[in-house]
TrEMBL record:
Pathway: Amino-acid biosynthesis; L-arginine biosynthesis; L-arginine from L-ornithine and carbamoyl phosphate: step 3/3. InterPro entries: Arg_succ_lyase_C, Argininosuccinate_lyase, Fumarase/histidase_N, Fumarate_lyase_CS, Fumarate_lyase_fam, Fumarate_lyase_N, L-Aspartase-like. It catalyses: 2-(N(omega)-L-arginino)succinate = fumarate + L-arginine. It comes from the Bacteria. The lineage of its organism: Bacteria, Pseudomonadati, Pseudomonadota, Alphaproteobacteria, Rhodobacterales. GO terms for biological process: L-arginine biosynthetic process via ornithine. This is Argininosuccinate lyase. Residues 8-302 form the Fumarate lyase N-terminal domain.
Length: 459
């Protein structure tokens, strides 16, 4: 038997394989609430413009609410033969209200319908991502505030570079996640146009009111070109792009947490709530959440590449290729939300180890730059020469197996005669960080200013 929605010209039904490759109901059922909201707005508009009767529209709007509650309560029977969520809902509406249901699809197509549903879904997801990012940023601000003046090593090439403050390091991630927040907000502003009423591709001859449906669904305006409206998936790509960059940030932080929680570093203790044990090694406490967050970029960026590749080279207007958009976005969205929540929990729970951080901050000749700067400032030495002299002092300490502050004044003077005891002031890690008062620098005062600024912006 041919399809009840479009089978007029068909004598036979589809092959089972055709049905299997064609059906999207297995995943687009997640658009049920959006689909019903879109249909209810469309029905109201059809009545307001006199295209259908008020009583038909009322029956549709009521019936659609019944369908929604059936779906929400798990009482709805999805049918693969009905392909997708749009036809499943409409067929059920027909079973509930009868003939008036057949008028719902006046002046629209599944093409503008799915574009509208998916946009609504992605818009909700952008809002959820914004909330997730804000929660994570809140957790980071808490860590930054608690350890604004705690010292730790700063790295380049993962080699000790200069001492920094714990708060400064946390605030670097706040900057990253705040940019992610900005990307999500930008995307939402750009995507908030309503495709409904573009119909199949060319618009419709019915006197529809696209402003009305756009407004009802919370869009800023109807999309301006019907061909573009049904063909555009930029909003999904922008979400995936923002999600990819955010997942990349998460992976960098996760990597640091994996390193920092190792027995060799011991910079942080992760909570039991966000760690797992080993079934064979009793001593183990593994940072699995951090590792999984580190890995999530794989599928999220994968979704970005997949959808970009689906869209590449597609001629206008709608092609069934575009049905491949949803699973990628659903998977990326689910995993991004999970990663954000897990990271937020880990950050809230983790205990930075102040003593270990401070001990590490002073090792590895981390204040060598401070020493070179002292030679410039106090002895008036050109920086290049100061760099060389300091290098000799580092070599001396290394040969002796000690850190720079452990060299005696005599040993220092054997490298350069004019060095005096005031040099020891700059070799301490606290003085080192406190001196870096340049705007955006690691001095606790600067870090506290950063924290105050973000707190104000974000509340
Ligand atoms: N399930 C389809 C999709 O996700 C809905 C649109 C179908 N349109 C069509 N012309 N067959 O894209």
């Amino acid at each position: 038997t041919s399809n009840q929605m479009w089978g007029g010209r068909f004598a036979a039904g589809p092959d089972a394989i055709m049905e299997a490759i064609n059906a999207s109901i297995g995943f687009d059922r997640r658009l049920a609430a959006q689909d019903i909201a879109g249909s209810r707005a469309h029905a109201a508009m059809l009545a307001a413009t006199g295209i259908i009767s008020d009583s038909d529209a009322e029956a549709m709007r009521e019936g659609l609410l019944t369908v929604l509650s059936e779906i929400e309560e798990g009482r709805f029977e999805f049918s693969t033969a009905l392909e997708d969520i749009h036809m499943n809902v409409e067929a059920r509406l027909k079973a509930i209200i009868g003939d008036p249901a057949g008028r719902l699809h006046t002046g629209r197509s599944r093409n503008d319908q799915v574009a509208t549903d998916f946009r609504l879904w992605v818009r909700d997801q952008l809002d959820a991502t914004e909330a997730g990012l804000k929660a994570l940023i809140g957790a980071l601000l808490g860590q930054a505030e608690a350890g604004a003046d705690w010292v730790m090593p700063g790295f380049t090439h993962l080699q000790t570079a200069q001492p920094v403050t714990w708060g400064h390091h946390m605030m670097a991630y706040v900057e990253m996640f705040a940019r992610d927040l900005g990307r999500v907000r930008d995307a939402r502003v750009r995507m908030n146009e309503c495709p409904l009423g573009a119909a199949a591709l060319a618009g419709t001859s019915f006197p529809i009111d696209r402003e009305m449906t756009a407004k009802e669904l919370g869009f800023d305006r109807p999309s301006a070109n019907s061909l573009d409206a049904v063909s555009d998936r930029d909003f999904a790509l922008e979400f995936l792009g923002a999600a990819s960059i955010c997942a990349m940030h998460l992976s960098r932080f996760a990597e640091e947490l994996v390193i920092w929680s190792s027995a060799q570093f011991r910079f942080v203790a992760l909570s039991d709530r966000f760690s797992t044990g080993s079934s064979i090694m009793p001593q183990k406490k593994n940072p699995d959440a951090a590792e999984l967050i580190r890995a999530k970029i794989g599928r999220i960026f994968g979704a970005n590449v997949a959808l970009m590749t689906v869209m590449k080279g597609l001629p206008l207007a709608y092609s069934k290729d575009m049905q491949e958009d949803k699973e990628q976005v659903f998977d990326a969205a689910d995993n991004l939300m999970l990663a954000l929540a897990a990271m937020e929990g880990m950050v809230r729970d983790m205990a930075p180890q102040r003593a270990a951080l401070e001990a590490a901050a002073g090792s590895g000749f981390s204040t060598a730059t401070d020493l070179a700067d002292w030679l410039v400032r106090v002895l008036g030495m050109p920086f290049r020469e100061a760099h060389h002299v300091t290098g000799s002092l580092v070599a001396k300490a290394e040969a002796k197996g000690c850190d720079l502050p452990d060299l005696s004044l005599e040993e220092m003077q054997s490298v350069h005669g004019e060095i005096d005891a005031s040099v020891y002031d700059v070799l301490g890690v606290h003085n080192s960080v406190a001196s870096r008062m340049s705007y955006g620098g690691t001095a606790p005062e600067q870090v506290r200013a950063q924290i105050a600024r973000w707190k104000e912006v974000l509340t």
